[in-house]
Amino acid sequence: MVPFRLKLDLQLFSQEKTESATPKKRQEARTKGQVAKSMELPAAFILFFSFLSFYMFGGFMKEKLISLFKSILNDFLNLNISIENVSVLFEKVAIQVMLILGPIFLVSIVIAVLGNYLQIGFLFTGDPLMMKFSKINPLEGAKKLFSVRAAVDFLKSILKMTVIGIVVYITLSGEKDHIMQLARLPLEDVISYAASVTLQLGIKIGGILIAMAVFDYLYQRYEHEKSLKMSKQDIKDEYKKTEGDPHIKGKIREKQRRMALQRMMQDVPKADVVITNPTHFAVAIQYDSSKMQAPTVIAKGTDYIALKIRQVAQDNGIMTMENKPLARALYAQVEIGQSIPADMFQAVAEVLAYVYKVKGKAN
Asked: InterPro entries of this UniProt entry (predicted)?
């Protein structure tokens, strides 16, 4: 005797989250602002492109800055201190500062927007701004403080500071001879050299931070996907909430079928004739020349339903005629409430003519 073996899916009992998130859960998480996003990536882009923009707009900024100092020293240094003169000075200085820093601010804003858009697309939600008591719960705060994510963030910070320190050390070590000669150079050359080294460091550090931020983004995506994972029971529960309980839906469909059958049986007494197979098929036909352009099927069924149609027809004095090919054809091709197709007009017309003839003789 072959032993009987029952196979069980233990994941249904363990609730282990092994399944990928469904589109519905992903959309719900996105609505709540829970997306795969790295804060390091926009910051690294801003740093890199801000220093890069100094190369693009450096000449323009230098001219504006020199013009500002010349204007202050030549036009305003010997002016009498008054409310009007000070207002004019501050207004002119503010305009010049805006012109100098405007390109950098514009680049930073554009890069910040693009850095976030490339990660999560367009997303506007106020759910993260809502007041939640869990955010001020000290226990939840302690859990986050000593969580794996906090440890990873700490290690990332240490790694970034280490890498930046190494880059700064290597760069300044390579410029050691030039730095030692700065004391003999004019002030303008010293400023130009310091600006050049600063730009080099900014671009190097920005490029390295972008590379590290890409890995951080991949890690954030991994953590996000992990947090969204579902158990098989979760998927079943979501399906029930979305589509409805299959048992309840089955009962509803059964009730709908019964109501449709009851309505159909109520229409059988209106029929002019019931065409049968004789036992397996029954199709009730009605024709009212004042309301209908062609005879119409008002009820049909097989087996038990066919028997009920014949019984209702007999109880109400509706004539029953046996025509196997016509009964099968009508049942297969014509739905309830539809008119007879043209290729069946002749056969149905002959049946109705016979019925009217018999009824006429009976009357």
From this structure: FlhB (IPR006136), T3SS_substrate_exporter (IPR006135), T3SS_substrate_exporter_C (IPR029025)
The answer to whether residues 169 and 207 touch, using CB atoms and an 8 Å cutoff, is no
* Cα–Cα distance list, 341 to 90, 118, 209, 328 (Å): 91, 59, 75, 14
Q: What is the mean pLDDT of residues 302-330?
A: 83
Residue 245 pLDDT more than 50? Answer: yes
CATH node for 249-359: 3.40.1690.10
Higher-pLDDT residue of 340 and 77 is 340
pLDDT digits (tens, 9 = 90+) for 123-177: 776 666 666 666 666 776 666 667 777 787 888 889 889 988 998 888 888 888 8
Single-letter amino acid code for the residue at 259: M
Select from 212, 221, 226, 211 the least CA-distant residue to 37.
221
Q: How wide is the angle at C-alpha 331 spanned by C-alphas 329 and 335, nearest 5°? A: 120
Tell me the CB-side half-sphere exposure of residue 289, using CA atoms within 13 A: 2
